[in-house]
């Protein structure tokens, strides 16, 4: 027997009963970003591998272990994008839309790919919404990104379940001085570090700070702090950010061990974390990357952004039961028609109603069937009301109107009055 076809491990189908919640989340974010003046950009899923090596850093876990890389028929090394910032920077450079100091406030949505160990909330194909802002170098835009997410959590009803963690990584120069001090300290405690941290000590020592190993965490208690090595400009920038968050009333926690997993960050870094999803606690993260555009061949350009994981945030909505009632109901009204003449009239009537109520979710029965079978399908659809069109209704040019949820008697509504009646009943329902 041949092996049955299955999806690749860690790459999941999003089934019809799941997509309404995804669409609700994505639509909520898109409306919010529109209101703040952000414009959508769409980049390819596949990029040249060199893009990610140059931007993310060759000694990061992503580049060393997690990227899906392959050669195409031309012999070029290509990679499924593991994150969106590098691709967005490549796009704005290629098309010259940040030249001359042009401010760009962009957002994107789509799948990312990393070969990680699949677990709840962490997948090999995962979906992100990301924002990138170019040519604004003050703490005010850093604050705007965080304020937007704070507003989003409020609209989604999950604000009480997330916590903001902040840190500043300073400039590359101040971070270099801190790196030297950290390496010196950790080298003196080398034998107490876990194996992964010993490896990182040689390649990417700042990543030792976010280790989950308890013994290494104990060593880090007395390690040098990044705040003691910040340059004056970075310190002033960080104080400006905190002042703006304080002014709006957004609570935050300073986390000196927050470094993020990518090499391109500088100054502000932040994470929104939760304790509602087990081990996968980060739902949104980002920061400033003022040197990245220049590193990738462009002119010095300020940059800041973040990405949020759709899977994790959808899971949070489910876990906290913050799902609007209308999301679980895909149909408002279900039209049952009995006999060919009624079916033809029903189609025409349904289209007239849709012309007048374009947001009404109206499903017309397909496949004919008895009175009992059609009503069974109407009930299964989750509709609030059933419309009935049979011989008697056809003769009187009315439609039967029957509530399917809660109280109410069946009544007859004239065809010309149906749209107005539905507008009232569905809104009230």
Mind explaining what this structure looks like?
- The chain has 429 residues and is of the alpha+beta class.
- The chain folds into 2 domains: 244 residues, Bira Bifunctional Protein, Domain 2 (BirA Bifunctional Protein, domain 2), CATH 3.30.930.10; 98 residues, Anticodon-binding domain (Rossmann fold).
- The chain is built from 16 helices and 16 strands.
- The strands form 3 sheets. Strands 1-5-6-11-10-9-7-8 form an 8-stranded mixed beta sheet. Strands 13-12-14-15-16 form a 5-stranded mixed beta sheet, with helices on both faces.
- Strand 3 and strand 4 form a beta hairpin.
- Helix 1 packs antiparallel against helix 5 and helix 5 runs parallel beside helix 9.
- The longest helix is centred in the middle third of the chain and has 18 residues.
- It is elongated and about 90 Å long.
- It starts with 18 loop residues before the first helix and ends with a helix.
- It comes from Pseudomonas moraviensis.
- It is found in: Cytoplasm.
- One of its GO terms (molecular function) is ATP binding.
Output the keywords:
429 residues, alpha+beta, BirA Bifunctional Protein, domain 2, Rossmann fold, 2 domains, eight-stranded mixed sheet
Annotate the secondary structure layout.
Layout: H1 19-35, E1 39-40, E2 46-48, H2 49-56, H3 61-66, E3 68-71, E4 77-80, H4 85-95, E5 104-113, E6 125-134, H5 139-156, E7 163-168, H6 172-188, H7 195-203, H8 214-220, H9 232-248, E8 253-254, E9 266-273, E10 282-288, H10 292-295, E11 303-309, H11 310-319, H12 325-328, E12 333-337, H13 340-356, E13 362-364, H14 371-380, E14 385-389, H15 391-396, E15 398-403, E16 411-414, H16 418-428
Parallel strand pairs: 1-5, 7-8, 12-13, 12-14
Antiparallel strand pairs: 2-4, 3-4, 5-6, 6-11, 7-9, 9-10, 10-11, 14-15, 15-16
Helix pairs in contact: 1-5, 5-9
